[in-house]
TrEMBL record:
Compositionally biased tracts (Polar residues): 378-388
R3H domain: residues covered: 523-588
Keywords assigned: ATP-binding, DNA-binding, Nucleotide-binding
Spans through the membrane: none
Short name of any one Pfam family annotated for the protein: R3H
Sequence segments annotated as region (Disordered): 359-393
GO molecular function terms noted in the UniProt entry: ATP binding; DNA binding
SMART domains from the UniProt entry: AAA, R3H
Protein's name in the database: Single-stranded DNA-binding protein
Classification via InterPro entries: AAA+_ATPase, P-loop_NTPase, PTPase_dom, R3H_AAA, R3H_dom, R3H_dom_sf, Spore_III_AA_AAA+_ATPase
Length: 590
């Protein structure tokens, strides 16, 4: 017999492998060809069930068939669910289907040889199969038209999305394009035989790509490393990266210069950041301490999260719908923005009615702001040497790390100069009692500290600041700003705290909180303060008239003085005891 030349033989075999499918033509994003081998899936079902779907009007939309012992068999479509029979599923029906599929692996999955269908089993405590989920596998050619330019770029791509959105289908098509159209050496790590089908011969949908099967799911990371060491691939395709060992193996492969195409559990990049098992895919997260100047420059707190390494995948694709994908062209930049409380601006790629790809940059939604103080997950701040220093790994307190992560992604509130809230104040010659009362009553994000090393600012009286060289020297050594108030009164303290927090000064029309000016909260004190408040708000401010109050004791008159000062007015005491009383003036006398 005459021998065919090797090149002609390879070409003939390649054409034969493609012949059962649709012709390999150049497809745009809107042009897709589908092959599902659905008849072979229906053949494993008991005859009455398979016959009911042979000519079903929604056959092309069938997602899966569910057979649960003692329940009616179901066919689940994209938009509806229908019963296939009026007789519950029996053990004999389950055994009929099990006998016609391949062996179930350690993850309770099996397949049908030379097809992409997946059969998953439900077992009881004794290991007996009591339910089957028969999922339809389809090879869709042209499904990656929206990101074909990214596939050809040579960068590693990570696909994210909810179950059933088409991640595995896109993965299979990317492997075919890389192997057939770009002529690259592609190896698929097929844990459940879902990408290349069941059996020893891979499904033609993967083209010239090679497939490595995994004996047990827990060995996937070892097979990934074996593929690189033994078979010299240019591209490795991995489905469902779900463990820390698999994420570490993926990083090892990427560092060897191999292009990675993979999927992971999660809808968005934020899900990976919050998942300690898979965070390494986007670079890993670590807690660091910023110096004061860096915190002010960034406008953030001093304790923040940072990306600790380059991401394993340079590009991430969030598959929202079949024809609507969000593309992060620079995963490192997107992760950095998210960790700083900002919203990245990825590309949104859709397919128009004429089949063309439409790329837009939707405006990012503003991050939600905190509505109350202090935040529930706030941590105490500390001062450092001014250098950024990563904490030791591994982190022992995962709860604190998780709280810090939530605070970072939720754009935490900071002070006007970038200080982390709550603001730590070191009082110098200021009434600690008045400070505590003001903070507690107004619910301000402020903490009084006795340790100047823990402070963010020094609060003192103006009179002490003028001639107190010791205080100035202390502030200079610890690099602390000093804020002064005119008097040790409640009104001045409240005004100083509002100024430190960047809050608007109280306007004359604001209603004062009387509990601020009454330490004991007795009825006599509150009644006298209410009298002064009404006099100010009802007569002095709107009418510009002076008002005399009822005679009060010296202690109560002092409280009234502070309340009147809150309204930026002045008052004088006149008369003799026990009839000495206050007179409130509409403006300060010149």
């Amino acid at each position: 017999m005459r021998r065919l030349p090797q090149r002609l033989l390879l070409s003939t075999l390649s054409n034969l492998s493609r012949r059962p499918l649709h012709p390999m033509v150049e497809l745009t994003a809107g042009q897709r060809q589908v092959t599902d081998d659905l008849d072979q899936l229906l053949a494993i079902l008991p005859p009455p069930l398979g016959y009911s779907l042979t000519d079903h009007p929604q056959r092309e939309e069938l997602l899966e068939i569910v057979l649960d012992l003692g329940r009616l068999p179901e066919a689940r479509f994209m938009q509806s669910t229908q019963y296939l029979a009026e007789t519950p599923v029996s053990r004999e029906m389950l055994q009929y289907a099990v006998a016609r599929v391949g062996e179930f692996s350690g993850d309770n999955r099996a397949g049908i040889e030379r097809t992409l269908h997946r059969i998953s089993a439900l077992r009881n405590r004794q290991g007996t199969i009591i339910g089957l989920t028969c999922r339809v596998g389809r090879a869709v050619f042209g499904t990656i038209g929206m990101i074909r330019d990214l596939v050809e770029s040579g960068q590693s791509i990570l696909l994210l999305g909810r179950p059933g959105v088409g991640k595995t289908t896109a993965l299979r098509e990317m492997a075919r394009v890389l192997a057939d159209d770009l002529r690259k050496r592609v190896v698929i790590i097929d844990t459940s035989n879902e990408i290349a089908g069941d059996g020893d011969i891979p499904h033609p949908a993967i083209g010239r790509a090679r497939r490595m099967q995994v004996a047990r799911p827990e060995l996937q990371h070892q097979v990934m490393i074996e593929a690189v060491e033994n078979h010299m691939p240019q591209v490795i395709v991995i489905d469902e990266i779900g463990t820390e060992l698999e994420a570490l193996a993926a990083r090892t492969i990427a560092e060897r210069g191999v292009q990675l195409i993979g999927t992971a559990h999660g809808n968005q990049i934020e899900n990976l950041i919050k998942n300690p098992t898979l965070a390494d895919l986007v670079g890993g997260i670590q807690s660091v301490t910023l110096g004061d100047e860096e915190a002010r420059r960034r406008g953030t707190q001093k304790s923040v999260l940072e990306r600790k390494a380059p991401p394993t995948f340079q590009i991430a694709v969030e598959m929202l719908e079949r024809d609507r994908w969000v593309v992060h062209l620079d995963v490192a930049e997107s992760v950095d923005l998210l960790l700083r409380g900002r919203v990245p601006s990825p590309e949104l790629r859709t397919v128009a009615e004429n089949g063309t790809v439409v790329v837009t940059h939707p405006a990012p939604e503003p991050s939600p702001q905190r509505s109350e103080w202090p935040p529930a997950n706030v941590r105490s701040s500390w001062r450092d040497s001014g250098q950024m220093q990563p904490l030791g790994e591994p982190l022992r307190d995962r709860a604190n790390f998780a709280q810090l992560l939530e605070a970072t992604l939720d754009a935490p509130t900071v002070g006007p100069n970038g200080e982390e809230l709550p603001l730590h104040i070191f009082p110098y010659a200021v009434s600690r009692h008045h400070l505590e009362q003001a903070i507690h009553t107004l619910h301000l994000p402020v903490v009084i500290t006795r340790d100047i090393d823990q402070a963010d600012v020094i609060l003192t009286l103006r009179s002490h600041l003028k001639g107190e060289s010791k205080l100035r020297h202390l502030a200079h050594i610890h690099h602390l700003p000093v804020h002064s108030i005119k008097a040790n009164s409640m009104a001045q303290i409240v005004r100083g705290l509002r100024h430190l927090l960047g809050m608007e000064d109280t306007s004359p029309t604001d209603t004062a909180d009387l509990s601020l000016f009454s330490p004991s909260g007795s009825n006599d004190e509150l009644e006298a303060l209410e009298e002064a408040r009404l006099a100010v708000e009802e007569i002095v401010l709107p009418k510009g008239q002076a008002v005399e109050l009822l005679p009060r004791s010296a202690n109560i008159r002092r409280m009234q003085h502070e309340l009147i000062e809150h309204y930026q007015l002045t008052a004088c005491s006149f008369g003799e005891e026990p009839n000495r009383r206050l007179r409130i003036y509409p403006s300060r006398p010149h």
